[in-house]
Amino acid sequence: MSRNWWEERVVYQVYPRSFYDSNKDGIGDIRGIINKIDYLSSLGVGAIWLNPVYDSPNDDMGYDIRDYEKILKEFGAMEDFDELLEKLHKRNIKLIMDLVVNHTSDEHKWFKMSSSNIKNRYSDFYLWRDKPNNWASFFVPSAFSYSDSRKEWYLHLFSEKQPDLNWENSDLRSEIYVMINRWLDKGVDGFRMDVINLIAKAPGLPDGEGDGYVFSPEYFAMQPKLHHYLREMRQTCFATRDCMCVGETPFTTAENAPSLVEDGKELDMIFQFDLMDMDSDGDKWHIKPFSVETFRSILSKWQKTLRWNSLFLSNHDQPRSVSRFGNISSTKYRIRSAKMLGTAIHLLRGTSFIYQGEELGMANVPFSKIDELRDIESLNFYNNAEDKEWAFNSILKKGRDNARTPMQWNSSKHAGFSEVEPWIGVNPDYNQFNVENEENEEFSVLNYYKKLIKLKSTNKIIIEGEFELIMEDSDSLFAYDRVLGKDKIRIICNMTDKKVIIEDKSLQNIILDNVKDPDLNFLLPFEARVLN
Ligand code: NOJ
């Protein structure tokens, strides 16, 4: 059977605002990405996922779209986008766009029309009520805000400036499908669909159970109607095209996830968040220590649940993985654990997503005060928190701006990202961790990632092989075999700062290792080894 292209390509996620500033305004842009295509190509990745580049007032950094057909001015113009697409395709790199259709900006023309008190085609495009329910929103206490013009309340699961669309309305759905098809006709190769499993809401928007504002995913995530919408979308937009759709689907479980992907009629893949939630106790800001056992059991559960998984440890919403799951107490451990984590996740079965800077071992940012932050989620959380010191400490560990500081290109001022002060400060460690240094250093995280990407996208056993968990009782190791017929590749990762003796030496040929002179008898702290 021939493989789908996304089954043999590694995806690299570009956060345009922080990738490279070509026009000296402190903000990354599309031309900046064009200027760095050689770099993308040198990584060996086969596709790029671009965070939103559409026109937006940037209340939530582009996830509040004002016009789906226009490029954000700060990022360039449609001609730049077209050139980027063409140049990527020339290098055999596919381009995946972000699709944000659970909500728009309140500055979108649909919402402006919808909030008028005169009835029109758009009146029903959003979720209007004459009184709010008790749902909490992700970003602000209440998920409802009042419109002075329409004199009614509208639902927004995110900020007040991100009103939720009413998917019950078939005119709205048609408009969205036309928009999607326009991008596909241009030649884009698929979409990462923002919170796509939240588009259907429970009829009547019933109150959640509890006092005050209640976070109520049981009424806004994975509702039965979702499957109808996704199938309709697939039929209308994707069925006859060779494109890939990966859904961002919070609150999915091993029980309900297969309904989204298994028969291929809805999505090709999902992002589920079990691993990202493993260090939270209740909400994301209450932090639990890392546990190898939990890491292993989550990953092996999903490897067994779905035929094809998305594989990621970081993205623009998550802190840096090396700070979170690795060890940054010394440069040696930071470099080694960054490579180990890459090995642990990306050699599993599924499509790898590498977030910009992950390949350099970029780490969380030592912000020193709240006005250095830009993210609405962190700022709102801080402003509403009673204990500011605790809130700030949680933001240092979990805040999204950890991942959004500029890409570190070299040791010159602003890390070579821009010639002027960037929109958000550069991580002060850029002198050491940057592309130029790491290209020249044989044992850098970057050079290791290149090997990893090559292995991931060319090795038949790594692409097609089944996953088998091994050494499952170890309290230090995450280890598994990838098995294809009689062939086997073994991956052993020491996730701790202790040396671990290896008892099973049935495979002895080391094909990749993150330490210089590996010893078959043991693994050093944070060592990762690939054997066949
Ligand atoms: C998920 C996106 O990744 C995140 O950045 C955004 O804030 C929310 N969805 C709302 O669109």
What compounds are bound to the protein? 1-deoxynojirimycin
Please report the total strand number as a whole number: 22
C-alpha Rg (nearest Å): 23 Å
Largest sheet: 8 strands, parallel
Strand order of the largest sheet: 11-10-9-5-2-1-15-14
Unreliable runs, pLDDT <50, ≥5 residues?
Answer: none
Summing up helix and strand content along with how strands pair, one would put the structural category as alpha/beta
- Could you report the average pLDDT, rounded to the nearest whole number? 97
Helical residue percent band: 25-40%
In percent terms, what proportion of residues is strand?
15-25%
Backbone shape: globular
- Report how far the terminal alpha carbons are from each other: 25 Å
Number of helices: 17
What does this molecule look like?
This protein has 532 residues and is of the alpha/beta class. The protein has helices spanning 30-35, 37-43, 78-90, 109-114, 170-186, 217-220, 225-238, 258-261, 274-277, 292-305, 321-324, 331-346, 376-384, 388-398, 435-440, 445-458, 460-464; strands spanning 11-14, 47-50, 54-55, 67-71, 94-99, 128-129, 144-147, 152-155, 190-193, 244-248, 269-271, 280-281, 283-287, 309-311, 350-355, 466-470, 477-484, 487-494, 500-501, 510-513, 522-523, 528-531. It has an eight-stranded parallel β-sheet with strand order 11-10-9-5-2-1-15-14, covered by helices on one side. A five-stranded antiparallel β-sheet has the order 16-17-18-22-20. A three-stranded antiparallel β-sheet has the order 6-8-7, with no helix packed on it. The structure holds 1-deoxynojirimycin (NOJ). Residues 60, 63, 100, 158, 194-195, 248, 316-317 line the site of 1-deoxynojirimycin (NOJ).
